[in-house]
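Prompt: For my understanding, could you write out one protein's sequence and backbone structure tokens?
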Amino acid sequence: MGKSFSEYIQGDKLVLVDFFAEWCGPCKMMGPVLKELKSRMGDDVVILKIDVDKNPSASQAYRIQSVPTLMLFHNGQIVWRKSGVPSISELEKLVQNHRQPAKN
């Protein structure tokens, strides 16, 4: 069995969470953007998609009022949050700005 949501966001990796709904048009636009981000950033970021209709407790816990809402977590803390559809360049810059320097 995989990690739980809380195990992911408590870790030291950056975790980008996409709160979405199946019925949401703009949410469907996020799929290709997140796929491209993952191909560009690789292991620098973990991307999780949370369906607000199937996970109402997570939606309530983070006060999700519109979808898509994206949140970036690091060490259990929310370091960025935005509703709507950000560009791939905005997300890439965001991950680069919050990424930990490589440990030698």
Observations:
- The chain has a mean pLDDT of 91.
- The first helix runs from residue 5 to 10.
- The two ends are 31 Å apart (CA to CA).
